[in-house]
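Customer escalation, tier 2.

The customer says the design service returned an amino acid string that "doesn't look like it belongs to this structure." They asked us to rerun it and document both sides in this ticket. The original structure tokens are below, unchanged.
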């Protein structure tokens, strides 16, 4: 799970960097609606990077390590698909990528379900 601590930390770092880029560089260059979309991507990236760190920290206390690993994988996939598609939508106006966003949302949900199941006692 050490790898997921690193991954979670990198994605949290990137959320801060991407958020700062949006606040300092993009402000006034994209529409308010696009900025809201971008901001949502940053928020969800940070929440789920913290989620990856949480799962990695709790892994030794969970009933199922396998489900903990899947939780991390799914949260990571959610970040890439959900937040990534929102960044592309906000910056490039590529509307077709909006169809990918819900897939990332489902990955987030599945990751949290895996965590809940990993913590469930038999």
């Amino acid at each position: 799970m050490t790898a997921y601590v690193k991954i979670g930390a990198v994605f949290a770092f990137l959320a801060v960097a991407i958020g700062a880029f949006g606040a300092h560089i993009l402000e006034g260059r994209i529409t308010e609606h696009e900025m809201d979309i971008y901001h949502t991507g940053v928020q969800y990236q940070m929440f789920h990077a913290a989620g990856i760190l949480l799962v990695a920290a709790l892994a030794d206390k969970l009933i199922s390590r396998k489900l903990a690993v899947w939780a991390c994988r799914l949260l990571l996939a959610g970040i890439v698909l959900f937040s990534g598609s929102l960044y592309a939508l906000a910056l490039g106006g590529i509307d077709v990528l909006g169809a990918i966003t819900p897939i990332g949302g489902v990955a987030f949900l599945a990751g949290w379900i895996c965590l809940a199941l990993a913590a469930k006692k038999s």
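Tier 2 assessment: The sequence is consistent with the input. The mean pLDDT is 95. Residues 2-119 form one domain. Sent an explanation to the customer and offered a walkthrough call.
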